[in-house]
Amino acid sequence: QVQIVESGGGLVQxxxxxxxxxxxxxxxxxxxxxxWYRKAPGKEREPVATVxxxxxxxxxxxxxxxxxxxxxxxxxxxxxxxxxxxxxxxxAVYYCSAAGYWGQGTQxxxxx
Length: 112
Prior knowledge:
The protein is mainly β. Helix content is about 0%, strand content about 50%. The strands form two sheets. Strands 2, 4, 5, 6, 9, 10 and 11 form a seven-stranded mixed β-sheet that branches. Strands 1-3-8-7 form a four-stranded antiparallel β-sheet, with no helix packed on it.
């Protein structure tokens, strides 16, 4: 049974930081690129960052470049999203996805 569980969201002030984690089980984690997505109220779901199977190649949405960092630990079957200098526009539910599977999401709210 595939399980994808995100955590680490919360309420943070503008300029603050959060680190999201996504723990995966039920499929061969190391064989799949992993992507973080987000969905804000009233907006389409969008990809935020992707990391290759070995972790050496990453891609980011223009809106988060220079502020977010995606990484993975294949031994722990976990992917991370370090988010710095957060802005109110980053408020969304953040999801982890791979191989057609999705987690339940974790809420990130950036507000003063």
